[in-house]
Specification:
It catalyses: Cleavage of hydrophobic, N-terminal signal or leader sequences from secreted and periplasmic proteins. The protein is α+β, with helices and mostly antiparallel strands. It is 37% helix and 24% strand.
């Protein structure tokens, strides 16, 4: 296999590397395009825990929408906690304000005993719909996101996959 790389002409190797870069940049542009269309910084998320079972399972891929939303009780939203990186997927159980007052939400995981006030940032009792919520769930594909969970739990798998993808592109003959 390494002999195949050595047999490539510099021009062929450069073309394959550029092809790989094109694939990566296309994926990035699609992600950014979805972000603009959905008005969400993260239009697709993966369920990482069992807190929303039975509605959503660990590994489900969720599609979010954040345009013109008047969030209702019972709606499933994805939100960020200030100071933390991982978004949370939970259901709205109460709403306060709206209209001229900022809309505030109280959330809870379907499989959790208590509401999310312990998960919110220090001193925060409710979510601010505009500042904290990434989007509302509009669709999902079961278990497809489990690959993301495996890649985050086993970092060596991410490296192996990137090496495999790079070698596939470089060794591809056109």
């Amino acid at each position: 296999m390494l002999g195949s790389i050595a047999n490539l002409q510099p021009r062929q190797l450069a073309a394959q590397v550029l092809n790989f870069a094109l694939v990566l940049s296309t994926a990035f542009m699609l992600w950014k395009g979805l972000s603009v269309i959905t008005n969400s910084s993260s239009p697709i998320v993966v369920v990482l825990s069992g807190s929303m079972e039975p509605a959503f399972q660990r590994g489900d891929l969720l599609f979010l929408w954040n345009r013109g939303m008047e969030t209702q009780v019972g709606e499933v939203v994805v939100y960020n906690v200030r100071g933390k990186d991982i978004p949370i997927v939970h259901r709205v159980i109460q709403r306060f304000g709206g209209g001229s007052a900022p809309l505030q939400l109280l959330t809870k995981g379907d499989n959790n005993a208590a509401d999310d006030t312990e998960l919110y940032a220090r001193g925060q009792s409710y979510l601010n719909r505009r500042q904290d919520v990434i989007g509302s769930v509009r669709g999902y594909i079961p278990l497809v996101g489990y690959v993301t969970i495996l890649l985050s739990e086993y970092p060596w798998l991410k490296t192996a996959m990137l090496i495999f993808m790079a070698l596939t592109v470089v060794l591809q003959r056109e």
